[in-house]
Amino acid sequence: MTTAVRSDTPPAIAPVGRARCSLDDLARYTMFHLGHAGGALLKPETLARLHDPAETAGDDRASADYACGWVVLKRSWAGGTALMHNGSNTMWYVVMWLAPERNFSVIAAANIFADGTDPACDEAATAMILKWLPH
């Protein structure tokens, strides 16, 4: 077994970090969540439900800002609601931000996951947001 295979997310928890796709496909995934899925794979109501923390929160106040994999936040640059998801398979790190009201998404990725990777990707995402979204 190669070092890379041993370094990846263990099979027992593979659903949380072994998804494989190109950055182009990941960008398409964000566009899908913004409602641009040519052919409409999901009804708009279903897609909205995936972004609604009320649907997943129940009585648990700690998850009130979490919706089916997305952290739901209010951000002025987003024009209201922003959705964020980040994660690593122990080798890569990715952070995605979506601004549905502004029809905007950004992805920052690193092909390593170590101390400092997540803040660096956050800084890159912030720089792109500030560059491409008028304030």
Task: Describe the structure using short key phrases.
135 residues; alpha+beta; 5-stranded antiparallel sheet; 5 helices; 33% helix
Can you describe what's shown?
Strand 1 and strand 2 form a beta hairpin. The chain has helices at 3-7, 23-33, 44-50, 53-57, 117-132; strands at 66-67, 70-75, 80-88, 93-99, 104-110. It has a 5-stranded antiparallel sheet, with helices on both faces. The relative contact order is 0.14. It has one domain. The chain has 135 residues and is α+β, with helices and mostly antiparallel strands. The chain has 5 helices and 5 strands, in the order ααααβββββα. The radius of gyration is 16 Å and the shape is globular.
Low-confidence stretches are none
Give the neighbour order of strands across the main sheet: 1-2-3-4-5
Cα shape:
globular
Indicate the proportion of strand residues.
Answer: 15-25%
Topology record:
Blueprint: H1 3-7, H2 23-33, H3 44-50, H4 53-57, E1 66-67, E2 70-75, E3 80-88, E4 93-99, E5 104-110, H5 117-132
Antiparallel strand pairs: 1-2, 2-3, 3-4, 4-5
